[in-house]
Amino acid sequence: MKRLKPFILLSFVVFNSFCFAQNDISKLKLDYKSAKTKYEISESLIKIITYYNQRNKKTDSTIFYNKKLELLALSENDESLLGESYRQFAHIYYFKSDYDKVFDYSKKSITLLKKFDENKKIGDLELLLGNTNQILFKNTEAILNFKEAEQLIEEKRKVNLYIGYANTYSQMNAIDRALLYYNKAYNFCLEHNISDYQYDIFNGMAVTYNKNGDVEKCIESLEKALAIANRTKYKLGKVIALHNIAYQNKTDKKYKEAKKNFESAITIFDSIDNDFIKASSYLNYAEVILFLGNDYSRVENNLYKAETIYDKINSTSRIPYILNVRAKLYDKKGDKINAIKTYEKAIALSSENEISGIIQKNYFNLFELYETNKNFEKALDSYKNFNRIKDSIASRKKIKEIETLKINFEVAQIENDLLINKKEVALLNAEKNASNYKIVLLCLFILSLLIFVFRQRKLNKTKRLRLKAENELIKLQQEKLNSTVSYKNKEITEYAVYINERNRILEYFSSEIRDIRSQEKDQNLKSQLNNLQFFIEDNLNINKEKIELNSNIKNTEESFIFRLKEKHPNLTSKELKVATYLLLDLPSKTISKQMNITIQSVNNYRFSIRKKIGLDKKINISEYLKSLSS
After folding, report:
1. pLDDT at residue 497, as a whole number
2. What one-character DSSP code corresponds to residue 619?
3. What pTM was estimated for this model as a whole?
4. Which among 62, 99, 315, 619 counts the fewest CB atoms within 10 Å?
5. Diameter of the chain by CA atoms?
């Protein structure tokens, strides 16, 4: 299957200006008529202009309202508004394929917008210039524009940037890079739930797959683009997709399908304003009709339409293609003389414009005509020229491949230079900021030094007074602690005497119960006496434990509590008591009985003590308390 010609698969990026609400145009016009202040009028005009741009309506209305915006800006001497007007003109002429005016208005707008730091709008224009340079095959300039735009545009506009990069790299035959950026753009759309640019992505992918010789994927991408254009009612996109599918069908000699595609595109020409795509469609449609039959007047009519439009937009490089089809028309009519003249005219114009492909075709067609007319000398000359051009095209292809490598190298160098420049600017800014910081810091240091000297004297005096007060407070606390310890020791002694007396009585009762039990015959009573004796003996053991415990506490409490409170003054009296029991390795059950609280409360006190003294979970609390008492 033959590959499509690179210039035919149009990769025409359409992107909106800054988005405004998609209001009905009649309401927008009504708002404009009722506007009174300069601000209200300018905002209404911008919304109307943007409405037309976003919907890609005929540009006459857009130009009409934008001229009003320009006059308003000039009358008010408002350079910011004038810059916005020029920006809108640049977008309008982009849709009209008037690229000289795109460059002119973009440069004017950027000059004005820079005065007001309108970076987002400047980024928008750099993006527009990049796409314009890409359409004009100025790939290096396009990459530079995209690099400038990358620093300025909003995050949501990056999809336009990725598509621009992809189209440019595709044009440079850097297929892998092109597909990388198309995929970036597609994934960006998915991540941000954007559907507006999927047409541009699939249309651009079609161009790239075509360049890579993958016609199947090319057609698949074009059909996806057409489906999106139909769904979104994007007229220009629909025409481009139909044009490209039709051209592929023509290349594959599927003339009926191609005719149907071109006719579908032509029916909606009134809804678009892109002259280049109209002319290309008329030209190729004429050739398809010629292949299908004898409707010569229809062929001539469409060739005339194409030629008129190419003259209008000054696209002389396309005229040899029209002459090629017209020569075929003469040949089919049997007018060999005019066919030969037309081929020769096409060759002359192609030579002027350096269009090798069409020259090769025309020489081969001349060779066939001369051979049919038995003019073998001229047939031989034409065939030699055909081979010469063929060899020249092959040579040019190799040169183009080398140039592509050079361009890729230059792009890499440009990217590297931009990165270095960016770093240098950042370094200069950092040095400037550092110098300012040094001055500020020096002033702050001197001021701080003066404040420090004044405050230090005051603080030293306050510190001496506070230290004296703290010493007196510690002395009082020590005296209070000693008094508390003495009182506790006295209590413990009295409690021990009381327990001893109580134990003596309980021992007497236990002895008497033992004697009564030995003499008693009633088993029921005997069992009750046995339980009573067990209870008394159990109490005797507990009381002995208490005497021993209180004795231990008495021996350790005085020094331990003092050290514990000194190191952790935030502990409460109950927490100190629990800590003392923990020091003696008493289990929670015993502590709960001694303090007459629940086991859960003992565990809560354990946790509270750990938290207040900042003890790590890995360290045993009893071991830590023992280290304080030693």
Report:
1. 52
2. S
3. 0.51
4. 619
5. 159
- 3-class state of residue 417 by DSSP: helix
Q: pLDDT at residue 570 above 80?
A: yes
Assigned token pair, 334: 């049997």
Q: Going by C-beta distance under 8 Å and a sequence separation of 6 or more, which residues neighbour residue 48?
A: 25, 28, 29, 32, 65
Question: In the block, which residue shows the tokens 């020569």?
Answer: 327
Tell me the chain's radius of gyration from C-alpha atoms: 49
Cα separation, 180 vs 171, in Å, equals 14
According to the model, what pLDDT value does residue 355 have?
66
Could you report the per-residue pLDDT of 382-421, keeping only the tens digit for each? 788 778 767 766 666 666 666 666 666 666 676 677 677 6
Residues near 31 by Cβ (< 8 Å), separated by ≥ 6?
40, 44, 47
CA geometry: angle at 167 spanning 166 and 169, to 5°? 65
Whether the CB-CB separation of 209 and 246 falls below 8 Å is answered with no
The pLDDT of 90-111, averaged and rounded, is 92
Please tell me whether residue 614 adopts helix, strand or coil conformation: coil
Q: Which residue type does 606 have?
A: R
pLDDT number for residue 289: 94
- Output the CA–CA distances (angstroms, integers) from residue 266 to 202, 261, 284, in the order listed: 22, 9, 12
Q: Which of 119, 193, 211, 196 is nearest to 163 (CA)?
A: 196
- 197 is written with which tokens? 């640019």
- Please, what is the average pLDDT of the chain? 82
Whether 10 has a pLDDT exceeding 70, the answer reads: no
More confident residue, 571 or 562: 571
Which residues, at least 6 apart from 604, have a Cβ–Cβ distance to it below 8 Å? Answer: none
Q: Pick the closest to residue 142 from 118, 122, 161 (CA basis).
A: 161
Q: Residue 140's closest CA among 418, 396, 356?
A: 418
CA distance 206 to 166: 12
> How sure is the predictor about 23, in pLDDT bands with cuts at 50, 70 and 90?
very low
What's the token pair of residue 585? 């390795």
Gap between the Cα atoms of 337 and 125, Å rounded: 52
Distance from C-alpha of 447 to C-alpha of 439, rounded to nearest angstrom: 13
Q: Quickly tell me which residue has 């993958």 as its tokens.
A: 214
Alpha-carbon span 230 to 235, nearest angstrom: 8
198-255: pLDDT as tens digits: 888 998 898 888 888 888 898 899 999 999 989 888 888 899 999 999 998 898 899 9
Q: Give pLDDT, residue 500.
A: 63
Residue 489, CB-side half-sphere exposure with 13 Å CA sphere: 12
3-class secondary structure, 603: helix
HEC-encoded secondary structure of 166-225: HHHHHHCCCHHHHHHHHHHHHHHHHHCCCCCCHHHHHHHHHHHHHHCCCHHHHHHHHHHH
Residue 471, CA distances (Å) to 264, 467, 564, 566 in order: 102, 6, 19, 13
Task: Check pLDDT > 60 for residue 14.
Answer: no
What are the residues whose beta carbons fall under 8 Å from the beta carbon of 254, sequence distance 6 or more?
none
- 3-class secondary-structure state, position 17: coil
Smallest Cα–Cα separation from 137: which of 160, 169, 180, 183?
169
**C-alpha span between 306 and 300 (Å, rounded):** 10
